[in-house]
């Protein structure tokens, strides 16, 4: 039950939506998420546009932006109740210096494909991981996250049972082989990952490393 409810903790749901979801099994939710991911990938790959200019990702700039706006919102942008991926996209664009595209742009309007790639965890991971080729390691333990993740990376959390994408974190720093993260929803800055998770509490999750360096 904990896994079931956590799969929906960061998603906007109305009361009627919740009533419908309660009748579904974990397998139903898993299959829906698989189909949604397939469709998202198909739509993103079908968009034909100008290839984004090859711009070097600015790790130091991303770290500074993340630090400046970890605990407050940059009011150039909308703020959402579930704001982790919106914050991550801002870090990439404003701090990292990567330009918006026809597939990743918050200003195209709520509900558009580019907007989803900006604010939705799954679409963000599909776009930056598969479409743009920044997918790194798949981590099934906390130790692997600490081993592979580096400052400037993003961590994408996914529920192993339901395959629901749940959360996006920015790797702010790394000290003595341990990762420190910044995030929105709930906001915090440069917190040691091992202080918030143990190998036991990590179980049931997968973390994808998005490597921009």
List the helices and strands and how they pair.
Elements: H1 2-6, H2 15-21, H3 26-46, H4 59-69, H5 84-95, H6 113-119, H7 121-131, E1 135-139, H8 142-148, E2 154-159, E3 165-175, E4 178-183, E5 188-192, H9 199-202, E6 205-210
Antiparallel strand pairs: 1-6, 2-3, 2-6, 3-4, 4-5
Helix pairs in contact: 3-7, 4-5, 6-7
Mean pLDDT over all positions: 86
Task: Please write the string of helix (H) and strand (E) elements.
Answer: HHHHHHHEHEEEEHE
Question: Roughly how many Å is the radius of gyration?
Answer: 17 Å
Measured as a percent range, the helix fraction is 25-40%
In what order do the strands lie side by side in the largest sheet? 1-6-2-3-4-5
Shape: globular
Number of DSSP helical runs: 9
Mind summarizing the main beta sheet? 6 strands, antiparallel
Which secondary-structure class do the elements indicate? alpha+beta
Q: What is the straight-line distance between the termini? A: 38 Å
Report the portion of residues in β strands.
15-25%
Number of strands: 6
Uncertain segments: 8-15
Features of the shown structure:
globular; 213 residues; 9 helices; alpha+beta
